[in-house]
Design brief:
The complex is a heterodimer of chains A (101) and B (120). Chain A is globular, with a radius of gyration of 12 Å. In chain A, the strands form two sheets. In chain A, strands 2, 4, 5, 6, 9, 10 and 11 form a seven-stranded mixed β-sheet that branches. In chain A, strands 1-3-8-7 form a four-stranded antiparallel β-sheet, with no helix packed on it. Chain A has 101 residues and is mainly β. The model of chain A has no long low-confidence stretch (mean pLDDT 96). In chain B, strands 2, 4, 5, 6, 9, 10 and 11 form a seven-stranded mixed β-sheet that branches. A four-stranded antiparallel β-sheet of chain B has the order 1-3-8-7, with no helix packed on it. Classes of the chains: A mainly beta (101), B mainly beta (120). Chains A and B meet through strand 4, strand 5, strand 9 and strand 10 of A and strand 5 and strand 10 of B.
């Protein structure tokens, strides 16, 4: 299974809406996870089962999709949200999307 | 506090060996699958090896099969990765992570800070 993400880089400003896409090469039902990683830090679990926020994750983060197409949305970017975002299914990770400004 | 702390990274020559360790605390270690994920410099994430709660099942990415061995000591709340025949392409930060759910392919809800392995 191959996961592709788009765009590779998303250039936005604080307060704007961010939308990151992840596409699977085969059907994965809703078994899709999103992580956030800041430079020099470990990844952090954001969303699992496509749309369930992990403990402590702010409501501005949301996930949607099923089958092969998934979306991570940040409704209004905060300064601390500028980071890399990765999708994952089982043993595979997407290549990542950098959200910067 | 739930915590994972890796150790054992360093500089090693090609063909050499290293043993990584991960100390777990703040949760019942023996009830969770555990995994090692690596990240080469400037690259994405790669799940390297995963082990069942009781150590009875292990899974490896193809690129490390036959060279790396994942193990655990539930009495000591520790996870290990024995890395042999190291190659330049094994250079990466290695993260220890807890698997959420009861299967090898679950996502990872707790991560350590990582330990750096350089093969050169």
């Amino acid at each position: 299974l191959v996961l592709t993400q788009s765009p590779a880089t998303l250039s936005l400003s604080p307060g704007e809406r961010a939308t990151v896409s992840c596409r699977a090469s085969q059907m994965v039902d809703t078994l899709l996870t999103w992580y956030q990683q800041k430079p020099g830090q470990a990844p952090r679990l954001l969303i699992y089962d496509a749309s369930t926020r992990a403990t402590g994750i702010p409501a501005r983060f949301s996930g949607s999709g099923s089958g092969t197409d998934f979306t991570l949305t940040i409704s209004s970017l905060e300064p601390e949200d500028f980071a890399f975002y990765y999708c994952q299914h089982r043993g595979s990770f997407g290549p990542g999307t950098k959200v910067d400004f | 506090e739930v915590q994972l702390v890796e150790s054992g990274g360093g500089l090693v020559q090609p063909g050499g060996s290293l043993r990584l360790s991960c100390a777990a605390s703040g949760f019942t270690f023996s009830r969770h699958w555990m995994t090692w994920v690596r990240q080469a410099p400037g690259k994405g994430l790669e799940r390297v090896a995963t082990i069942k709660e009781d150590g009875g099942e292990t899974y490896y990415v193809d690129s490390v099969k036959g060279r790396f061995t994942i193990s655990r000591d539930n009495a000591k709340n520790s996870l290990h990765l024995q890395m042999n025949s190291l190659r330049a392409e094994d250079t990466a930060v290695y993260y220890c992570a807890r698997v959420r759910g009861g299967s090898w392919y679950g996502d990872m809800d707790v991560w350590g800070r990582g330990t750096t392995v350089t093969v050169s």
